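Next up, a chain.

===
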Amino acid sequence: MKSQPPLPDRRSRFAAEARAERPDVALLCLLIGREADASLDEAGLDAAQIELDRLAGMLPFGLTSPRAWATALADLLGTRLGFRGSPGEYGRLEASLLHEVLRRRRGLPILLSVLWTEVARRAGAPVYGVALPGHFVVGLGAPEEPDERVLVDPYAGGGLLTRQDTETLVTGATGAPLEPSMLSPAEPLHVVVRILNNIRAWASTRPERGDVALWAVELSLLLPSHPARLRYERAQLLVRRGDFLAGAAEMDEYAEVVAAVEPSTAEAIRHKARAARAMLN
């Protein structure tokens, strides 16, 4: 396999942070934002982190119970500052970018949940993200003590979720019942994968935003674990953007990966690679 070109500095930083023992979700989200917004420089990254610290400092001292934390977060972030979601956010790329969510106080459930957890964590709360199917929320309290745990929905301004509310969210998204495993703390890189998947889904319905689709795939490929098929997705994007040789080379490399288990698929991909090269003739 041919050697890959060196990564830009911002990509190297993203890859290094993704492989850290304890990945910084806020930093990874901000580095995703830097791909979308060329004006987000180092000072902008620092300013966003400082703002998260400032918001944490606005929470009252002496909170102990999960419900008290939930109430204080909802009062500050949801009511006083107006962080919440709306249906229109699903059509905005900015709703998946943490620095823009901080600025606009609007976003998708997962980005609002990242904001909630980062603010609460800085203030010392026992907090974690909960990756329900179709709707990300926040848990407060010890995960191993479900009777004491509280779930809140940042998209709805931090409203408390009853067991029935949670079951309704899951059933509405999947048609299946709520399983206890769905309430486990989300791993940091799972959060990042889900955000990048949202961005790829946003770009997939907008052919003119192939640039966004490409960088979202390329960041996904920098994560320690990713589906091999992402390489084929990247190859297709390169061809669509007119980089026929690079796209064809990527297709050939992916065909080698799948040839042992899916020879017919590998041959079909090689055919597409030849067709991509023919576009230069």
Summary: The first helix runs from residue 9 to 18. The longest strand covers residues 127-132. The chain has twelve helices and four strands. The CA atoms of residues 16 and 96 lie 22 Å apart.
